[in-house]
């Protein structure tokens, strides 16, 4: 668990009532991949976005990056609403950079490390000393001395070194926010800690903000200041990482935590698969799989769970939960 930095009141990035729908299959109902999300990220803050595969977290991250245009709602960065013109997106992507989970897929095998890191500079017409900028980025990413890596190719590097090259390619543009999608999922356990420590040091040294997308609550504990738990297109619990992960209130968060090796008690096995985002159930969207409702513990609010829709959680930093049982 990290200690949250002192941040300014105004968020660096804000999503407000964000919705993203995709056309249904064969003319069916549209899929509501992101179905009402408010999320703030403060300067110098690391937020972990967690949830099962298919919950919408990657679509939300791509929307925050400007790679997907929201159906409704908007994204604000540094006080300005993101527009999806080519010029606006090019300027935005210099300030907000993506780090993908698979460094092998992110790097062109025919490009040297130098060219991989310099690519962003060339796209954005960098007018300074390119060699110095590349060397500085590699050094910040932990590849020292940087010149030793200039002429190497991805296949000559370890998995951890390739991920550091990807991070250097993001850092070379001196962004204010990194969006890291499962940044250590493809790495050996021995290397994961090094990459997480690197991301934390970048926050401390450069004041970088980060959104870390992951299914791993253990990773969230180790790196995040704040966590947002997503289920079926909506954030269902959010707050400071210590508050959420030591005293989870939403049954879904409890189930995710129960499968961690260090978790006391038996793991909670959720019934079935997450519902189709084209057929989101009424009431609480988790009610069909909720272990608390199934056990009878939530009988007093069972009707509300099945019929009454919960409000969208705000993007603020305080602990919040969307659950009738915990109200």
Report strand order across the widest sheet.
6-7-8-3-9-10-11
Q: How many helices in DSSP terms?
A: 12
Shape: globular
The CATH topology name of one domain reads Rossmann fold
SS content category: alpha/beta
Our estimate of the beta-strand percent is: 15-25%
**N-C termini distance:** 27 Å
Major sheet details? 7 strands, mixed
Question: Helicity level, as a percent range?
Answer: 25-40%
CATH superfamily grouping of one domain: P-loop containing nucleotide triphosphate hydrolases
Alpha carbon gyration radius:
21 Å
CATH architecture of one domain: 3-Layer(aba) Sandwich
Secondary-structure element order, as H and E? EEEHEEHEHHHHEHEHEEHHHHE
Q: Say how many strands there are.
A: 11
Which stretches are poorly predicted, pLDDT < 50 over at least 5 residues? 4-8
Give the averaged pLDDT, no decimals: 93
Class of one domain, according to the CATH hierarchy? Alpha Beta
